Automatic annotation (TrEMBL):
Domain of life: Bacteria
Transmembrane intervals: none
Lineage: Bacteria, Bacillati, Actinomycetota, Actinomycetes, Kitasatosporales
Family, similarity comment: Belongs to the short-chain dehydrogenases/reductases (SDR) family.
Keywords for this protein: Oxidoreductase
Keyword Oxidoreductase applies: yes
Protein name, as recorded: Decaprenylphospho-beta-D-erythro-pentofuranosid-2 -ulose 2-reductase
Keyword Oxidoreductase applies: yes
Organism: Streptomyces prasinosporus
């Protein structure tokens, strides 16, 4: 169960090698979390992440999970919930893709959409149903400011995050009153392996800053969290720009 501040004792990470998710796990372990499940494709990286978190004092287990295999989600994630209640599910998997390649290769674009949206819909509903059955818990979904308005530079990725964001908000409405809390996190440019080599955007942030925002959001039971918070105003302005003006911006 959660403590008096709404922080979890047990955590399931979907995307167990995500730098943002692991930063959040480290922060939560330092506070209260004692049991962690890392769900992801079996790999040395997943094992290394689990070992690192064990070194911080948590009981950590891994579970084989593939976002691109929705047919296997209920079985894989059901095994986790069968072990006992889960206080927090952090949906953190995703792929940035390569815009130029994705435009040339529709199948590559489809893979981005299937990972970021279709896989998240499947895994999100499996976890939401399990959380509803146990009568409590939080589902935190890592979205992106890229989903606020599709940009020419990354509209394949942005459109997939727009779908994910809308799905997560609707899911939160559907679960209202059930004891399950859904929180959507919208970071801007985060300095991670996924963004290495890309031009850094204004108001860039770090996995640790996103993790801190996740913790604060859980304490406040927020429904939407922007990281950094100033992006809320920036994206509101960009969202309402006339399309002709938006097209001419260097974004």
């Amino acid at each position: 169960m959660k403590d008096a501040f709404g922080l979890p004792q047990s955590l399931l990470v979907l995307g167990g090698t995500s730098e943002i998710a692991l930063a959040a796990a480290r922060r939560l372990i330092a506070r209260r979390t004692r049991t962690v499940w890392l769900a992801g494709r079996p790999s040395p990286g997943l094992d290394e992440a689990a070992g690192h978190l064990r070194g911080l004092g948590a009981e950590v287990r891994t579970v084989a999970f593939d976002a691109l295999d929705p047919a296997g989600h209920e079985d894989a994630l059901g095994k986790v919930f069968a072990e006992g209640d889960v206080d927090l599910v952090l949906l953190a998997f995703g792929t940035l893709g390569d815009q130029a390649r994705d435009e040339r290769d529709p199948q590559a674009a489809v893979r981005v959409a299937q990972t970021n949206y279709t896989g998240a819909v499947s895994a999100g509903l499996v976890c939401a149903n399990a959380l509803r059955a146990q009568g409590h818990g939080s589902l935190v979904v890592l979205s992106s400011v890229a989903g606020e308005r599709a940009r020419r530079a990354n509209f394949v990725y942005g459109s997939s995050k727009a779908g994910l964001d809308a799905f997560a908000q609707g899911l939160g409405d559907a679960l209202h009153g059930t004891g399950v809390h859904v929180m959507v996190v919208r970071p801007g440019f985060v300095r991670t392996r996924m963004t290495a080599g890309l031009p850094e955007a204004p108001l860039a942030t770090t996995p640790e800053a996103v993790a801190a925002a996740v913790e604060l959001g859980l304490r406040r039971r927020s429904e939407t969290v922007w990281v950094p918070g100033s992006l809320r105003v920036v994206m509101s302005a960009l969202r309402h720009l006339p399309r002709g003006v938006f097209r001419r911006l260097p974004v």
